[in-house]
Specification:
The complex is a heterodimer. By secondary structure, chain A is α+β, with helices and mostly antiparallel strands. Helix content of chain A is 51%, strand content 14%. Helices cover 81% and strands 0% of the residues of chain B. The N and C termini of chain B lie far apart (72 Å).
């Protein structure tokens, strides 16, 4: 899989440069369908194009009209160099002072970070940070677990399948695939989803495992009842977030990373008939408030396509879950 | 006497050739460099060095054809060594992850910050790959020639740069 991911990286680069052939695009799509890491890291083709559009927009908006020759005449090359060197020395000195303050608090700190140009103002800022011990303490654990290491796995709580249906799709399933399969599911499954959506049983206590067992053990009577409510001829399209499952992107506060917070948060969102989220409820807490909050915040920010019954939108309940785990991605 | 005349003639010719190059490429080159090093003054310095080097080469070897690719290669090398010289400074805890909030607040005031912040966080060869292709308009193969690597390596670097850009964009979206 690693080799394929490396290949996907090159393909994504080709797509970003608009150089990919149809075959390459197809190969990329095929890889994304099975690789949750790559879809999280690079995004789909449209997403790559959107990201790259930032670059072309910046290029088009560029208004700087430098004149190399005028700049050279104003100050001789040697003079510019000298001034440049003096400036660099002064900045380095200032930074050395700031660095000394920090190193004296925590001597084995050696974080290499690419940074944009350093100005004197930056140096002052560093020195100020160095003088504030509680800030340093607050940030120390962040280095133990770098920001990129927390992996969020989007897994779908599949309440909606009949007992005979195959086990829930792996987390790697692409959103489009999932929604397509939902749209095409047989009438019995629709009935089941109705049961799940209508049954008001104690949601607060449910864990994902509990949900799954309940789903397999749905009493036939209830199923029959739901069939009576919605005959299979009625076309139901279920609620889903606009933009697919990637539309909900939880971003836990930095402390989650330093605390090594992991766990699964299951949640449901009440969506009104316009697709606006009204309320978000955590149905299974991950054990970390930051993670749960991040999930609900992200869920409330998304917009949804509401459940429709015969094309008529109705208020609906969207259920989903996120698993946070620490990963060894670079 | 003859020799002196010849040399001045070569000199003026070289001057004219480099002048033409300056007229045509200085804007593109300096903008590219400014994105690479994140500083207009430094970008102008490096562009001057590049054109000066071009002038020396053209004067010494009048037969030699200098292409735009050569200019970009020299500029990229100049930018990378500039950044390397600055590395001792970059290592210091201007550390974006440690003090992420402070960084975002004070950089937000600057214009076109998103892109520059993302570029500042990239290793220089990735920044060069993405700038040469998306900004300067070279294909991955041409960029590979300039950078002395393969087209696939350029694509890979572009992808990694894109990934960083995406991360920064998502962070900014989160802020709003």
């Amino acid at each position: 899989m690693t080799g394929e991911c490396a290949r996907a990286e090159i393909l994504a680069g080709a797509i970003a440069l608009n150089e990919a052939s149809d075959d390459e695009r197809e190969a990329y799509r095929r890889h994304l369908a099975v690789c949750v890491r790559c879809i999280a890291a690079f995004g789909g083709e449209r997403e790559i194009e959107r990201t790259m559009a930032v670059l072309s927009a910046a290029r088009d908006a560029e208004s700087w009209q430098p004149d190399v020759r005028v700049a050279g005449r104003a100050r001789t090359l040697a003079g510019r160099r000298l001034i440049g060197r003096l400036g660099a020395t002064a900045t380095a000195l200032l930074l050395a002072v700031g660095a000394y303050a920090i190193f004296s608090v925590n001597s084995n700190r050696a974080v290499v970070q690419p940074a944009s140009p350093v100005t004197v103002a930056d140096a002052v800022k560093v020195a100020r940070v160095a003088r504030s011990p509680e800030r340093i303490r607050a940030h120390l654990p962040a280095r133990a677990l770098p920001h990129d290491r927390l992996v969020v796995v989007h897994n779908v709580v599949t309440l909606k399948r009949a007992p005979v249906a195959p086990p829930p799709a792996p987390v790697a399933a692409r959103p489009s695939v999932r929604h397509a399969s939902q749209a095409a599911k047989p009438a019995s499954e629709i009935a089941d989803s109705t049961v799940a959506a209508l049954s008001p049983s104690a949601r607060e206590k449910r864990s994902i495992a509990a949900l799954r067992t309940q789903q397999t053990a749905a009493p036939p009577a209830e199923r029959a009842e739901s069939l009576a409510v919605f005959p299979s001829s009625v076309s139901i399209r279920d609620v889903f977030p606009l933009g697919g499952e990637n539309a909900i992107v939880p971003r836990p506060a930095p402390i989650a990373y330093s605390e090594n917070a992991t766990g699964t948060t299951a949640f449901e969102v009440n969506v009104d008939e316009r697709g606006v989220p009204v309320r978000c409820t955590i149905t299974k807490a991950s054990g970390y408030l930051v993670l749960d909050e991040a999930v609900c915040r992200a869920a409330m920010r998304a917009r949804y396509s509401p459940r429709t019954i015969d094309g008529r939108p109705v208020p609906s309940l969207y259920r989903d879950a996120f698993t946070f785990r620490t990963g060894d991605e670079q | 006497m003859d020799e002196v005349y010849l040399r001045t003639d070569e000199g003026t010719r070289a001057q004219a050739r480099v002048d033409a190059m300056v007229r045509e490429y200085q804007t593109k080159l300096a903008r590219y460099l400014r994105r690479m090093v994140g500083d207009a003054e430094a970008a102008l310095d490096i562009s001057q060095d590049v054109f000066l080097a071009a002038f020396r080469i053209v004067k010494a070897e009048p037969e030699r054809e200098l292409t735009a690719g050569w200019l970009y290669r020299a500029a990229t090398n100049g930018a990378i060594s500039f950044l390397r010289r600055k590395k001792i400074v970059r290592m210091l805890p201007l550390d974006r992850d440690v003090d992420r909030n402070a960084w975002r607040i004070d950089e937000r005031s600057a214009a076109s910050v998103d892109l520059q912040a993302a570029l500042g966080r990239l290793p220089s060869e990735q920044a060069a790959a993405v700038m040469l292709t998306s900004y300067a308009g070279y294909s991955s193969r041409e960029a590979a020639e300039i950078l002395g690597t393969s087209a696939d390596a350029v694509r890979q670097r572009v992808c990694r740069a894109m990934r960083m850009l995406r991360t920064v964009m998502l962070e900014n979206a989160e802020d709003r």
